[in-house]
Amino acid sequence: MTLSAESVARLLEEGRSHRCDGSLETCVRAVAVADLPSRFGDFQVVAFWNELEKQDHAAFVHGDIEGRERVLVRLHSECLTGDAIGSLRCDCRDQLIASLERVAKSDGGVVLYLRQEGRGIGFANKIRAYQLQDQGYDTVEANEALGFRADEREYGIAAHMLGSLHVRSIEIMTNNPAKIEDLRRHGVTITGRIPLVIPPQPNDRQYLETKRRKLGHLLDVEQLDCATSPSEEPTR
After folding, report:
1. What's the CA gap between 236 and 176, in Å, rounded?
2. Nearest to 208 by CA among 181, 193, 226
3. Is 205 exposed, middle or buried (0-12, 13-18, 19+ CB in 10 A)?
4. Which of 78, 91, 95, 134 has its CA 20 to 30 A from that of 196?
């Protein structure tokens, strides 16, 4: 089951006629929808456009989620080095794959792919943060040394995307309480949290430990204790 032809037509018409009443920074509109068979399962991809920032975002939808309650949702912030290149400094690619696989097995869900590279500081600054991490900084210290907060992301755009898809409530795959808090602040009804913990690898153990200790991510200490490494990546 997919979004029906009527749902797709309505989504695109609403996108064409949409006028935002709130912040233009978080205002997106659906501009295109296409079928997307993948190695993880069958999806429909919805392209969203933010006019103010001239930036696009994507929703990978499995099943007909329009008007549904308790839709399985993952918010994934872009990580070029992890998602595309397979960097071992983070668990981003593993989280993305696990999310797509789980959504594809559900009776309806969506992975929102948000263009918020490097916890919202952008690609070039993420690589600058890498340089600092190579000198011994952790991910939080590196971002702050560059003049940023530990995490610059916000999820108003994600909330707007879910609203455009007419999702009524969600079960969210995340380990990050701040993500839940921000979505609720933007009016998203969250009925449950599903942990998404990837077993640590030798290169990302300290990165995960910093997320747990400094950013409050809900990670299992025992899982983190099974690997050791000094390397990190500032993306999740």
Report:
1. 9
2. 226
3. buried
4. 134
Residue 168: CB atoms within 10 A of its CB come to 16
**Structure tokens that stand for 183 in this block:** 């979505």
β-strand partners of 49: 29, 56
The dihedral region occupied by 41, where left means phi > 0, alpha psi between -120 and 50, and beta the remainder, is left
144-150 long-range contacts, Cβ below 8 Å, gap at least 24? 146/121, 148/120, 148/121, 150/119, 150/214, 150/215
Domain 5-224 class? Answer: alpha beta
Quick check: 96 and 214 in contact, CB under 8 A? no
Residues 174-198: b if buried by 16+ CB within 10 A, e if exposed: bbbebbbebbeebebebeebeebbb
**Rounded CA gap, 61 and 126, in Å?**
29
CA atoms within 13 A on the CB side of 155: 24
Categorize the per-residue pLDDT at 225 as very low, low, confident or very high, splitting at 50, 70 and 90: low
**In whole angstroms, what is the distance from residue 232 CA to residue 199 CA?**
15
**Euclidean distance between CA atoms 101 and 41, whole angstroms:** 7
Residue of 172, 195, 167 lying closest to 182 (CA atoms): 172
Q: What is the pLDDT of residues 179-190, one digit of tens each?
A: 999 999 999 999
pLDDT digits (tens, 9 = 90+) for 142-176: 999 999 999 999 999 999 999 999 999 999 999 99
User: pLDDT of 90-147, one tens digit each?
Assistant: 999 999 999 999 999 999 999 999 999 999 999 999 999 999 999 999 999 999 999 9
Residues annotated as part of the active site: 151, 153
Domain ranges of the chain: 5-224
